[in-house]
Amino acid sequence: MQRSILPLFILSLLFVMVSCGKSKEKDLVIKENDTIVVYNVMMYAKLGGYMDGNKKIFKIIDTACINADCRVQNEIKKYGYKYFLGVGLGTTECEIEYLKKAFLKKGIRTDVYGVSCLGTPPEDKFGYLCYEKAMNAAVEEKYGITFIDSMEKVRMHVHGICRTKY
């Protein structure tokens, strides 16, 4: 009796594992007539969305950027504002530390994100740095473009000082 139950158990376990794996992928792609609705960049790439000469019609719903806006509002309520500084190869630690102090005088925390000289993914498909851009826009809305411009001027000035200092 026990010998006959074991294969049945293994078979049912395999069935559950296989069926669960496929349903996850189905949720990421929906076909509407001849249009493929895609919700994330990985599935878009997997379906050949970035390939030249692709004849498929895609409708892109960028849930990451939609979620970023909600996340920004929640984090502002909980923790306050945060400004993201783009840093590249020429950015010095001295420059970042100086800007952190300048932003903190207004009660704004800072963080950094990497900027590549090679470019970024195409913006027309899926957003890039959605959370960072949304948070920076919220800071700009709250404190004004004049404040952000003044911080950029400070950054340029400090960049020169930090480069000659070290």
Automatic annotation (TrEMBL):
This is Lipoprotein. It comes from Flavobacterium album. It comes from the Bacteria.
